[in-house]
Design a protein that fits this description.
This protein is α/β, with parallel strands linked by helices. The chain has 2 domains: 50 residues, Multidrug-efflux Transporter Regulator, Chain: A, Domain 2, CATH 1.10.1660.10; 118 residues, Response regulator (Rossmann fold), CATH 3.40.50. 45% of the residues lie in helices and 18% in strands. The chain is built from 8 helices and 8 strands. The protein has a 5-stranded parallel β-sheet with strand order 5-4-6-7-8, with helices on both faces. The longest helix has 14 residues. It holds the Pfam family HTH_17. Keywords: Phosphoprotein. It comes from marine sediment metagenome.
């Protein structure tokens, strides 16, 4: 069961003023809900996602959560290659794959990954649509999107960045560059 934290408990953990925590919530930066009495509560996992996104240290007494990565590519061989490279570099990460945009949408809702490595050209729902979906949903908008394409162009790169991706890498992938990008965002 997810642990709910009050703004005061969060403030104590992070050594900040409770008003700062309330402001983060009110600004939509930190996901929260309200009790029937009107008090703000934050699920521990949402706090950890917020801290990771804003490059803030995670308190030692917070439950350790694995970094979750979703690789979306219709070419299974590439998805598996990227998965193996990430698992070799970061054995503590949870790495999942999806082989089309529709499957990715299903997995996104339950997995809530920290990072999505996303191919732009796929049948059905393409990477642009998947990226828009990720960034439009409150449960997944924290995810960093690293796009990849075998058809690089300034137009495609700008379009995916406009959809909310962090960067767009060219295929064939430079694994060192990909691993650097992953390490930078987690």
């Amino acid at each position: 069961m997810a642990k709910n934290l009050s703004t005061f408990a969060i403030a104590r953990k992070l050594h900040v003023d409770p008003g700062s925590v309330a402001n983060w919530i009110d600004q939509g930066l930190l996901k929260a809900h309200r009790t029937p009495g009107g008090h703000r509560r934050v699920v521990a996992e949402d706090l950890i996602n917020f801290l990771r996104k804003h490059k803030m240290p995670i308190p030692e007494d917070m439950p350790a959560m694995a970094t979750r990565i979703l690789i979306v590519d219709d070419e299974r061989a590439i998805a598996e290659l990227v998965s193996r490279a990430i698992q070799a570099a970061h054995p503590d990460f949870e790495v999942h794959t999806a082989n089309d945009g529709f499957h990715a949408g299903t997995v996104l809702a339950t997995l809530k990954p920290n990072v999505v490595i996303l191919d732009l050209r796929m049948p059905g729902m393409d990477g642009f649509e998947v990226c828009k979906l990720i960034k439009s949903e409150q449960a997944t908008q924290h995810a960093e999107v690293i796009a990849m394409t075998a058809y690089p162009s300034p137009e495609n790169e700008q379009r995916i960045l406009d959809c909310g991706a962090r960067t767009c890498l060219s295929k064939p992938l430079d694994m060192d560059q990909l691993l650097t990008e992953v390490s930078t965002v987690v």
